[in-house]
Each structure stands twice: as C-alpha cells, then as structure tokens.
C-alpha cells in the first residue's frame, strides 16, 4: 500500500505534463524525456535555493505568485473546499481549512486515507507583499504510517529469524542459497535484509519523499495562482 501511495504521488505531480509534438526522431526522444518533468506557470516557479531539505517529515520553500496575498488565500481556500489535489472531490483528498486569517492559511488532512495518500498532512501558506508564498508541510502522519508498516514487517522477519532454525533451513535447501556464499553468509544477508527493510528503509523513504512533496505543493500554488489571476483580470 505504501508503494502504491508513492506511485500515486508521482502521478499527481505529473498530471499537468504534456508531451511536446516531436519534429524529428531526436526531438521526439527529447520530448519524451521532458514529458516526465512537472510544468508550472512561468510566473509561479520554485526559486533555486529556496528549498530547505530535511531528513525529517517536514519541508519548507518559497514560490513566486502574481496575485495579491488576499486573493491568493481566498482562491486557495476555495480550492481546498473543491478538492486540493485535483480540484474535484475525492475520498483520498479530503482536506479542511484549520485556520484562515492574519495572512496565513493552514490546511489539515481530515482523515487517515487523506493523510496516508501523498503526505500533505499539514500545509501552512504565508503569502507576502513581495509576490511570494512561503509554505511549510509537515507529514508526520504519513511518516508514522511508513514506520509502522515497515517496522511491522521487520518485526515479523525478526520473529522468524529468532523463532525458527533458519540456518538449518538454509543448509538443507541449497536452492535457497546465494551461489558462492556459505550458509553463515546467507544467514547474515537474511538478517541484514530484515533489519534494512524493516528499520532503515522507512527513514530513507521519508527523506526521499521531500522532493516529490515540494513539487506537488509548487504545482498546487501555481494552479491556484493562475486561477486567481484569471478571475481578477477583466
């Protein structure tokens, strides 16, 4: 389920991507490669150096916008009501506005399905008069899900390694051994795999989730900014 959520996050990031029409074989290959990258409104781009990377389940960044702070916050509030991820209601995109006012908008995942979806658990937006929006995302609920799921699988693996004669099983089943390695070496690899996938991998996954989440938030801000600018124009 966890890997399915990561795949869904990737699909959401790339929802606005469209392949360029190839003019030649070389151009076609280049267009296919570029189609995998998310596109944002030119006026709402992620500034280089504004991303604060973190190993923990939290990200911060800054995106430029064209609309005023008040118009942007009101447009984003309407987007949350409609469905923040795609602009349409979905049972895994159920967010609510927790606080609006004083130049700040805080959005909260209303249920566990939304919290476990793409990690947009707590979103805070602070637009400024300089034409930028500072955002902060905390995804502790998503991270806890990853830790509990991987830890549970790791616990099952440890129980099997400690409760059964795994060494004897490996010795009596040559087909289960890695070629060229001894029985003890195969057993050591089994222990290493259980410890890595159960207790190390979730922290790597949490760190890896930072960049897709940055891209997702930047895309949402860009879309809302474009909608607000279009509504404000005569």
Characterise the protein shown here.
With 234 residues, the protein is of the alpha+beta class. Helix content is 51%, strand content 14%. It has a 5-stranded antiparallel beta sheet. Helix 3 crosses helix 8 (210-232), helix 5 (140-163) packs antiparallel against helix 7 (183-208) and helix 6 (166-172) packs across helix 7 (183-208). The longest helix has 26 residues, at 183-208. Residues 1-26 and 28-53 have low confidence and may be disordered.
Can you lay out the helices and strands and say which pair or pack?
Blueprint: H1 2-13, H2 25-34, E1 58-64, H3 69-82, E2 95-101, E3 104-109, H4 112-115, E4 122-127, E5 132-138, H5 140-163, H6 166-172, H7 183-208, H8 210-232
Antiparallel strand pairs: 1-5, 2-3, 3-4, 4-5
Helix pairs in contact: 1-8, 3-8, 5-7, 6-7
Main sheet: which strands, in order across?
1-5-4-3-2
Report the C-alpha radius of gyration, rounded: 23 Å
Q: N-to-C SSE series? A: HHEHEEHEEHHHH
Look at the helices and sheets and give the structural class: alpha+beta
> What form results from the Cα inertia axes?
elongated
What's the mean pLDDT score?
A: 82
Give the count of helical stretches: 8
Strand content: 5-15%
Largest sheet, strands/sense/barrel: 5 strands, antiparallel
**Count the strands?**
5
Helix content: 40-55%
Low-confidence stretches: 1-26, 28-53
Distance N to C terminus: 46 Å
At a glance:
With 234 residues, the protein is of the alpha+beta class.
